[in-house]
């Protein structure tokens, strides 16, 4: 009986070793990632090769007095059209990049040039007769025209996180070279910006007093790389640099997740791995109103 038991034991050991060896060579099915998987990685590990080295910014036409003659120097920013300025600056307020005052002045100037001048009236118009209740019809067309012309006028804004050597001024004035795929990036901003701002607002509303004090009067910067497939659908979000506040990081990621599809991406942006790599920096400058001390 002892030799039989010994033989069975040896056979069991041999089978066990065989099964363990097979388990090492049989590949385990890879888990399919979610639509937007969040990872913490180093910037140097990015696989992107087609991301331009110049920063892409939303076009902001500088006032004529700030423009400079064109030159052959390479600008550090890319935008819808080529522009050279005497000194680079950024607007003090944050928001969708736009030089509102300059835009309104240009539109008013254009309207003055294209609208035929009315001939002076020989005599004042006679007011319309009053009705039986004593009321007269009042012409407010001029007031409505003035209101429409002034609609949207306000201080200039800037939406990008620009280098620290770009001074703060009344307008956003940057040296830009023309970027072929600018319209695609502009569409992305229009789909993402208001979603991101809403997410940040909800995050701030959820802060307790201690978190408010910690987050106030500081810049919180999140850098994210987003991977889109050839159809423009978001497949992955990689947090390359955390701001230090998780809800601010998730606000950036969730804004892209909510938009989800960015239609008609240029096929030239698809890289060898089959993805379009988009790198974005999200900057939250949280300055809460004064809080009462209990």
What are the key terms here?
Fusion Protein Consisting Of Minor Coat Protein, Glycine Rich Linker, Tola, And A His Tag, Chain: A, Domain 2; 6 helices; three-stranded parallel beta sheet; 32% helix; 294 residues; alpha/beta; single chain
Task: Summarize, please.
This protein is an alpha/beta fold and 294 residues long.
Please characterize this protein's 3D structure:
With 294 residues, this protein is α/β, with parallel strands linked by helices. It has 2 domains: 32-51 and 181-294, Fusion Protein Consisting Of Minor Coat Protein, Glycine Rich Linker, Tola, And A His Tag, Chain: A, Domain 2 (2-Layer Sandwich); 53-108 and 134-178, no CATH class. Helices cover 32% and strands 17% of the residues. The protein is built from 6 helices and 11 strands. Helix 4 packs across helix 6 (246-259). The chain is globular and about 50 Å long. The N and C termini lie far apart (86 Å).
